[in-house]
Amino acid sequence: MERKYYEINEMQARQARNMWSFTEYVAGSATEDYKQCVDTAYSYAEAVPDHAKEKALYYADMYAKKLAENINKGFRVELMCPSVMISGAGNFPTRKKEKQNEARGRLYEEYERIKGYLKKIEWLKNSKPIESTGQPNTEYDREYFKVIENAEIDRLQLLFEDKPSEGVRAVLRSNGYKWSPKNGTWQRQLTDNARASVARVERGIKSAM
């Protein structure tokens, strides 16, 4: 299972440490700590049954991406104001420190939301596969893609000849579609709303081209 990591700003990690501690920063330590957290998420995903593995990997990747963003924001917050131990008590920027603490609070709340991806992966460990309906699949062509009503896995799938542009991918995502590497299609749950979305996607693609 391929594990995806996002960049941690090591330069700001070092600068942030210098703002609040006399201890020398160990090069690469912020990245290493981050990777250990991400590895935990992927380890959870590896334990998920095959029928839910794709979704678990998506959550693991989102956790990795959002966690990196949160960590890097944290460095910038720490650079807002030094510790009183570093700067000294004279003319200490009290208002800056208050703003810094407020930003820390928002970051913590964001971090708690990010941990929700781990809970979703844990939930998938006990999920059961969707039972087959026994109904045949329906396929038909539209101007820009083929539509597959895949009753076997309860998904409406859009199949493109080539990789869609970023603008087209944005249209797909805004209409609830997600890329499935396993099936090689953009797909969402097979519902009446999904069927109705096909026309919206087509109109959106025309506008994006």
Cross-sheet strand order for the largest sheet: 1-2-3-5-4
Helix content: 55-70%
Give the total of beta strands.
5
| Mean pLDDT across all amino acids | 89
Query: How large is the share of residues in beta strands?
Result: 5-15%
How many domains? The number is 2
Distance between the termini: 35 Å
Low-confidence stretches: none
User: Helical region count?
Assistant: 8
Task: Categorize the overall geometry.
Answer: elongated
Run of helices and strands: HHHHHHEEEHEEH
Helix/strand structural class: alpha+beta
* Main beta sheet strand tally, sense and closure: 5 strands, antiparallel
Rg: 23 Å
Describe the protein in words.
The relative contact order is 0.10. The two termini are 35 Å apart. 55% of the residues lie in helices and 11% in strands. The protein is elongated and about 75 Å long. The chain folds into two domains: 115 residues, no CATH class; 71 residues.
Layout of secondary structure:
Blueprint: H1 10-20, H2 29-46, H3 53-78, H4 84-87, H5 94-114, H6 116-124, E1 138-141, E2 146-150, E3 155-159, H7 166-174, E4 178-180, E5 185-189, H8 192-208
Helix pairs in contact: 1-3, 2-3, 3-5, 3-6, 7-8
Task: Produce a short descriptive summary.
The protein has 209 residues and is α+β, with helices and mostly antiparallel strands. The chain contains eight helices and five strands. It has two domains: 10-124, no CATH class; 138-208.
